[in-house]
Structures are given as structure tokens and as C-alpha cells.
Amino acid sequence: MMTPEQRLWREVILFAIRDALRQNPRGMDSRSDMDEARSFFESHGKWRKWFDTCCHLAGWEPEFVRDGYRNARSRGARGLFGERA
């Protein structure tokens, strides 16, 4: 059974994926925001440990999330983790 905390962290991760793919209805402030969101999933620099922690709090393995992000990026976010685009 998924805990409320896991649900919250999963939503955080999915929101960040939408940011990285520029699919959030709230929009992005700048290109650098999108680049930063992409760096989160590609685990460059400062984001590596934070990314792993978020995934574990969500109950997901970091490689599962990273693969889901890569697949979503290549398909335009269709079918991301069972979600409908």
C-alpha cells in the first residue's frame, strides 16, 4: 500500500518531469528552469543525491524514474509511469 508521503513525492517527481518536458500548464520562467529540471533527471552535479533521495521517498528506484523520464522525453510524455498524456 502506498503511503500519503509516497504519493506526494511521486507527484513531485511527475511535476518535475513535466517541467523538464515543458508540459506544465503554469509555464516555465526561463529556458534555464527547463535545463535545471532536465539536469535533475540526468543527475548532473548537485542534483544526483537529491534525485536519489526523492526517488526513494517516492518508493521508486532511481533507474526506474530515469528510464521513465528518458522514455517520456523520446515519446513526448505519452504513457509516463502509466499516466495518460
Task: Characterise the protein shown here.
65% of the residues lie in helices and 0% in strands. The protein is globular, with a radius of gyration of 12 Å. With 85 residues, it is mainly alpha-helical. It contains four helices and no strands.
Provide the descriptors you would attach to this structure in a database record.
mainly alpha, globular, 85 residues
Low-confidence parts, pLDDT < 50 over ≥5 residues? none
Q: What is the count of distinct domains? A: 1
Q: What's the order of the H and E elements?
A: HHHH
Cα separation of the termini:
25 Å
Structural class call reads: mainly alpha
Helix fraction bin = 55-70%
Q: Count of helices?
A: 4
The gross shape turns out to be globular
Topology, number of strands: 0
Work out the radius of gyration.
Answer: 12 Å
* Strand fraction: under 5%
Q: Characterize the main sheet.
A: none
Average pLDDT score: 80
Write the topology of this structure:
Elements: H1 4-20, H2 31-42, H3 47-58, H4 62-75
Helix pairs in contact: 1-2, 1-3, 2-3
Task: Give a quick precis of the structure.
The protein is mostly helical and 85 residues long. It has helices at residues 4-20, 31-42, 47-58, 62-75.
